[in-house]
Amino acid sequence: MSTEVVQVVAAAVFDDEGRVLITRRADDAHQGGLWEFPGGKVEAGEAVHDALVRELREELGIDVQRARPLIRVSHDYIDKSVLLDVWRVDDFSGEAYGRESQPLSWVQPQLLSDHDFPVANIPIVTAVQLPDCYLVTPNPGDDLSAFLSQLETRLRDGIQLVQLRAKTLSGMDYLALAKQCQHLCERYGAALMLNANPSLVAKVGAVGVHLDSGRLESLSERPDVKWVSASCHSPEQLRQAEKLGADFVMLSPVAATASHPDTVPLGWQRFQELVELTSCPVYALGGMMPADRERAFVYGAQGVAAIRALWDV
Questions:
Q1: In sequence order, what are the residues at sequence separation of 6 or more whose Cβ sits closer than 8 angstroms to the Cβ of residue 242?
Q2: For residue 1, what pLDDT is reported?
Q3: How is domain 133-311 classified at the CATH fold level?
Q4: Are 91 and 12 in contact (CB under 8 A)?
Q5: DSSP class of residue 20?
Q6: Angle at 26 between CA 20 and CA 29, to 5 degrees
Q7: Of 250, 236, 260, which is closest to residue 280 (Cα–Cα)?
Q8: Distance from C-alpha of 116 to C-alpha of 131, rounded to nearest angstrom
Q9: Which has the minimum average pLDDT: 38-42, 72-76, 154-158, 173-177?
Q10: What is the DSSP letter of 60?
């Protein structure tokens, strides 16, 4: 395997309709004929943001107006290693076209999986499809009607990704509640993850399963569901999540929390160091508020995950 590491900047460019732009590689290029997110090599001494602006102007004829970090992906091919520094572009000027005669297409994020991408782009597809807030539900308590009413309120307010965490419920009660939560999520176009036995996902119709650290460490194979997320607190758990093929993870605790006052928080610097160990999207968990998203992006996060801060809004 080559020891050469090629640093590449890539962009998930969104239009006003929420579609993302992809381009098709030339047949005679490396990974030829596959779709990808536009971008190119970062030149020696060039700042990554400057490379992003230059590449999109050269390839697509557009000028970046607003962009933020999305994800960094390292991948080893047989003939080379690449480090993809991916940015999300939410505002640009000009009309995108293939200045190098490359085919391009504007695609709804949920339909990206219908296209063939290089393996290194798969985590980017997931990051594009995921929102920047991940709601973990609190204990539902005895008043399930109030719980479901509050969930519907949060979905109506724009929450797009929900993890149903209800450790105190029996298996049958959890299944019944999960089906009601799935019905609400479908109504508002949100995705539901079950913090439970993976076998329940098909029964509920949820999009996937969330593995707590205990279940994560006990599994040797990836559950057969669309999405798998996992709770991680250490480099070892991040490696296990990647070994299982987790699509995204929650890494915690970033900051001090009232629920775990004796746990030493990671802090943002250590959080960033751990994020560099994995190529899948990472949510920052532990003492997070919606207002922490911008800081989280800077340190490599997909966004923030929270219980009360996203529930009691």
A1: 278, 279, 280
A2: 45
A3: TIM Barrel (3.20.20)
A4: no
A5: E
A6: 115
A7: 250
A8: 22
A9: 72-76
A10: H
